[in-house]
Amino acid sequence: MKSSTYYIGSSSTAKALRELVANMANSNATVLITGESGTGKELVARMLHEQSNRCGGNFVPINCAAIPKDLLESELFGHRKGAFTGAVADRIGRFELAHGGTIFLDEIGDMSLDMQVKLLRVLQERCIDPIGGNRQVQIDVRVVAATHRDLETEISAGRFREDLYYRLNVLPLATPALRERHEDIGELLNFFANKMVTFAKQPIRFNSDFLQALNKYSWPGNVRELSNLVDRFSTLYAGQELDLRAIPPTLLPKGLVAAQIELQAISPLLAKMEVTPPPEVLQEMQNQPEPEDNEIESIIMLAQGMPHLPPEGVSLKERMAQIERSIIEQALERNSGNVSRTAKLLNLQRTTLIEKINKYELRMA
Prior knowledge:
Blueprint: H1 12-24, E1 31-34, H2 41-50, E2 59-63, H3 69-77, H4 94-97, E3 102-106, H5 113-125, E4 127-128, E5 137-138, E6 142-147, H6 151-156, H7 162-168, E7 171-174, H8 185-195, E8 205-206, H9 208-216, H10 222-236, E9 241-242, H11 254-266, H12 279-286, H13 296-303, H14 316-334, H15 339-345, H16 350-360
Parallel strand pairs: 1-6, 1-7, 2-3, 3-6, 8-9
Antiparallel strand pairs: 4-5
Helix pairs in contact: 8-10, 15-16
């Protein structure tokens, strides 16, 4: 079966990782994936599953850091009705759900020591004990674990069991940081830009100066940060070619703000920006006489939502409301009117967003 999951990139680093995954796929040995946050560890785990002879079974992921310690055992191994307060029915654990397939234990380095002991026993005996049960359940599962932590350091600090480490680290696999494969940045930008196209609009594009800055940026959040940045720009500037000088600094990570300041100092060609201002600003511009050269910068700053005070003054409250309405409207369009996804995109509480939608009489799903 051909994998539908693909590790994007044409660099030698990306090719080597794909080759390593292909070589490891059909083994039943446990894999330990290490790498910084945002480097695609779950993506690699899915590739291992989809390219293996277990691809017909389930791929079952669980984030060990996201589940409270007292609930993790039940999540992993299941429980029987009446095993504890609130156990009103039998529950199948993740290991049993993954029978015949693959279980992905993400952030294994955050697992408590007592749970590490229980996991080690499962890896040794290939059976689980559901909480409150009176018999063991045999399992046929391939275990793939991942962590952003240095487990050898964790072992030295007494936070991770050495015997479990050796059980997990049979086949080690490291996902590279994005700064280690800069050649893939352009390909990743195009991939996510096309993935995030909405309606009949074209994917966003980056002019040469912006691309150069993106290639020099260190990407501390790795591919996840790149994906989120493209999603943000696709929402706010759908179908446009972006100039770094035209992006409000609040929408940029600090490293790109520094590149923006440098670019503006070297080549202040603000009048040539191609980013389209919000509709209400366009209307205001169209109602004005043709600007003189010394007015160009003021209009561009206005289009960006940057502070500019004309001689006759301006209603700050009205201007901020215009900008807020425009951003919410674009975000709703990007998410097909879905309020929950829009609230997440704008980092707002759902109830707060609904209040603003009603205030501006916008449509939602």
